[in-house]
Structures are given as structure tokens and as C-alpha cells.
Design brief:
The protein is α+β, with helices and mostly antiparallel strands. 33% of the residues lie in helices and 24% in strands. The protein is built from 3 helices and 5 strands; from the N terminus they run βααββαββ. A 5-stranded antiparallel beta sheet has the order 1-2-3-5-4, with helices on one face. Strand 4 and strand 5 form a beta hairpin. Helix 1 packs antiparallel against helix 2 and helix 2 runs antiparallel to helix 3. The radius of gyration is 15 Å and the shape is globular. It starts with 6 loop residues before the first strand and ends in a 5-residue tail after the last strand.
């Protein structure tokens, strides 16, 4: 796997910034010749992570930023999303597939990230999430 340079991005805490994530994923998938299934998994997982950072982390505070780091490592594609919020207990997120949560309009982001990325880790009291995709790289 050729080494693409790592990429640092900084986003404002506004939903219109999601288009920048879409462009990043398109560039990464083009560079590494990633198939459509993996592209979709990356797109949904990263969009959810950034949406959570905007909405729950930074609480739409436009003075707070979201940092995105893409770093290819050997046969892995790693993305770190960091917000400037108060953090959260990622072990206490309710299961969106539980019967009492099925009708709720939100609460699926962490669940989706865990199921679409090959590895999900949280750091800094939940302010940073690292999404790793390994099955996508040939």
C-alpha cells in the first residue's frame, strides 16, 4: 500500500461542514481503490462521528472546532475525530436496538460506528474517537 500523506482538517461546528468529510473520503477511496461497500461504511461511520462532534460534543457552538486526522498505517486507514466539548461516557450509550429505543429519532451514531468500522476507540473522556478500517485495504 502506497503511503498517502496524513491529512489534518479543522471544521466548524456546523452541519454544512459534512461535505468536507465526504470529499476526504472520496479522495481516500480513490487513492486506495476502495470498493463501494467500504466507501459506504467509511462515509456513514465518519459522518456519524462528525455529526456527534457537532451536535453532542460542541453543541453547535461555532467557536468550537472539530479536528479530523486521517493517517494511513501499514494496511490500516485510521481517522481521528476530536471535538472541544465536555466528553461523554461512551460505555453508557443506550442500545438503539433495545425495544424501548426503537422509536427514538436519534441515538444510533455510536452503534453505527461500532458496526461499520473495523475498530472504534475513544480517548480523552470521549472527546476523541478513532475509527480504523482494515478490511477495506487490499
Amino acid at each position: 500500500m502506497e503511503a498517502m500523506e496524513k491529512i489534518n482538517m479543522q471544521l466548524n461546528s456546523q452541519f454544512d461542514q459534512i461535505t468536507k468529510i465526504e470529499k476526504l473520503i472520496e479522495d481516500v477511496c480513490s487513492e486506495y481503490k476502495i470498493n463501494q461497500d467500504c466507501y459506504g461504511n467509511m462515509l456513514v461511520a465518519l459522518t456519524e462521528a462528525v455529526n456527534n462532534a457537532i451536535q453532542h460534543g460542541n453543541k453547535f457552538d461555532t467557536s468550537k472546532k472539530i479536528n479530523i486526522l486521517f493517517e494511513p498505517q501499514n494496511q490500516l486507514l485510521k481517522f481521528e475525530i476530536t471535538d472541544e466539548g465536555d466528553g461523554f461516557d461512551f460505555n453508557q450509550v443506550p442500545d438503539p436496538t433495545a425495544p424501548e429505543n426503537l422509536e427514538k429519532p436519534n441515538g444510533r451514531g455510536v452503534f453505527l460506528m461500532r458496526h461499520l468500522a473495523d475498530d472504534v476507540k475513544y480517548f480523552d473522556n470521549g472527546r476523541k474517537v478513532e475509527l480504523t478500517f482494515k478490511a477495506c485495504v487490499n
